[in-house]
Structure prediction request, 927 residues.
Amino acid sequence: MYPTRTTTVLLTAGLVTLLGVPGAEAAGAAPSSLYVNRAAANCTDGGPGSQAVPFCSISKAAKVVEPGQTVWVDAAIGYYKESVTIDRSGEPGKPITFDIIPSAPDPETGEVLETYWTDGLTISGASHVVVRGPVTDDGIRVLGSTDVALDGIGNGWSKSHGLVVGGGSEDVRVTRSRLHSARVEGGSRNTVFGRNTFFAQKSLEAAEVVDAPGTVLTNNTVYSGCKEGIGVSGGSTGSKVFNNLIYPADYCSNFESFRSIGVSESATAGTAADYNLITGGYGQSGSLGMPYQWAGTGYRTSAEFTAATGQGAHDIVVPSRDGVGAHLGGSPTIDSGDPTAPGVLPTDIDGGPTADDPRVPNTGRDGGWIDRGAEEAQDRLSMVWSYVSQNNWAPVGSKVGVRMTTDSQWESTLTYHVDFGDGTAPVVSKENFVEHVYGSPGVYNVKTKVVTAVGREVAGSTRTTKVTAPGVLTAGFTATPVLPTSADAGYRVAPLTVRIDTPGATVAPWRVGSQKVDFGDGTSSSRAGLEKVEHAYKTPGTYNVTVRLTDTQGAESTVTKTVQVDYAPSGYVATEPFRLLDTRTTNTPIKGGSALPVVLWAGQNVPNHGLGQSMSAVVLNVTVTDATEDTHLTVWPSGQSRPATSNVNIAKGGTSSNTVTVPVGADGKIKAQLNAGKASLIVDVVGSYRPTTGERFSPVTPTRVTDTRTSGGALGGGKTRTVKVAGVNGIPASATAVALNLTGTGATQPAHVIAYPDPAKRPATSNLNVEPGKDKSNQAIVPVGPDGTITLFTNSGSTHLVLDAVGYYGKDGKALFTPVVPKRLADTRTTGKVAPGATTTVSGLPANAVGAVLNVTATDSTGPGFLTAYAFGGKLPGASSLNTLPGVTVPNHVTTPVGTGGKVNIFNSYGGPNHVITDLLGYFTQG
Prediction:
């Protein structure tokens, strides 16, 4: 296997942790460290090699390093394109050391580089040298050197040996490395290979020892090529081959004659081999051919080998490599080696300690449990799950238990630790279930950890347990309105939503296992524990809410409370008008007696427009046309009964429109229904009201803004006219929208009128439908455009327009709007007509209301005239609210100030007596 950077991370895992990453030198102290970082912008080989100004090359550090110094190579750059030669020496107890500063974690993968690459590494004529971590392209050479330690090194593929120890070197130790075809030669003595992985080049031995007495190969994993796995020859007497795992190259043509271990006759003196494990290929069965050769003679089995040579008495030879390896349970490598073998290390190639696998017998020497090969089987414990009994809830004096489960396969070796979080000493046990009795009420964090036999700790998740005072289950709850917040941008809070909070008001010594809430409107909610629940009522009103609780011990408790549900006061959110519905485009007229649901597109994308997810009411311009008979239209919230009110009155064959303010149903819809006949319905959105957001409203005494009869002349078809509405007539320049009564008179032909904010963006909607010979009015809420203006447009003919301001919306507004289910306040058809010049007083509004939104209808009129709504006790203004026509029923959306006692006056002009019907759509209050 080619040692990639990711693979090589494993080589030195834990080494830097044990040694510590260097810090800055103490002031005045002789430098104990040099630094190399080719990635640093200020690196220079002409500098001091300090942490602040590092060298750019490893070679520069190698030329100046002194005994006792450590050269710290930053791994962040990954590749140092240089061949490094180390020819300087340390001293006994003061070696020259080359070590690693790991890279920062990769932001995407989290990978940390703990190695670096070079073209090549040569240690020549040096002594007392330690090198950790480099991986080379051209191999590593140790020549004529003494007391050299190479740890966690590696090399790439090449046609020659990746590591060569020669030139009479002595006491070279190669550990925890991944190497391609290593060779010891040239009279080198006492070379030790421990816990390495050897990957053989096809034409080379994986580990070749030639004329190198005293060479030790212990606990290595050998992936052989087409020659010997481990070959010892020449004058390599006194060599030791122990605890190695040798895989064959079963792709070779000479596989039958392949030798896993070969020792020439000249090297047998003092040489020993034992506790090695040799496998066949994947899926192989039967004989391995000739796995041993000793002094020129081949042996097919370990028994033959031992009988003839006295070697390999504890070797294991298996026909297949299937099931062999440290990560495979039951592998014959596990706990079967010789812990006293020469060169044995306390940790494996990955830094893992020698560990006793409880699942297999200890068949190693003298009952030892070291494994064969470079890797040591470990408890792969990585996860701990903790569970607190009593459902994490119990009164003082009750036993609370904690059970821990893990993904460990070595559970019998684990130790369990539990800190119950109340200041008592943690409980340590070999059992995975421990109990504890708390002495006082409180909420405690229970922390757990599990420790393996080799001391590795894995923490479990912290669990919270509630300890209560002893007592009796007593149900309780609070009910509060749920209002949208800025955090609810993607979540709809329906009007009339109430939160029932049981956790905050219930006394529960034991955990509640069942909660049922009867909302008093025919619906209910069940939960498996004590939990806050939210419910959207369809209609405001008074409800008896009942909560029934059952705890885990079987105790029950019930409580009933009266809950008042009302619409929340809301601010106004203007939008550019857009058409929501036009039944003419689908040829589906509405029919009398059949309610049409209208979806308000809450939370969905309407190009260039939008309706809030959590609006409580919507402001519409509703037009009815092509009626087959005299009729009227009622609009109301979905989910509620149709009220005895009306919004638009229409004569057969005519067109009539009116502004409608209506609460939104719990399902985000409204309903519209004709009283009789058929007609087409057009719905345009003007704006909406939302709790906790939007602008407040300030009513004003109805004030005339413009009258084209006295200024500017009639508005011609296809023409526009800009009118100043903010910064004049008591309406501040900061107003964001104005409420106007728009009246058309003197129209030369049927047409529609649009009032809109941006003269460059005329919407495909309408506010008023005018007809020749009729004065027609409608209220409009229009966003304020550039310089405090709005723009007026009519599509054909010409018409005079009269605009009366009744209020404005803005940041300095005074009042919020509370919608109501449409409600009839007064109907003079039961008390008598309002005479010309007379005033009728309408009561029934909240005493604290400062403004009201009404639908006022004039009917059974005997002559043309107008009605004016104004505050009770106030002065009659010189403006109108709707225009009356003889024999025609005329409705209009009216916003008006409210006088003392929650009353409104409606004045009838001198045109003739009228019946006046007043329906309440909502009201404004300060606060």
Summary: The chain has four helices and 70 strands. The two ends are 76 Å apart (CA to CA).
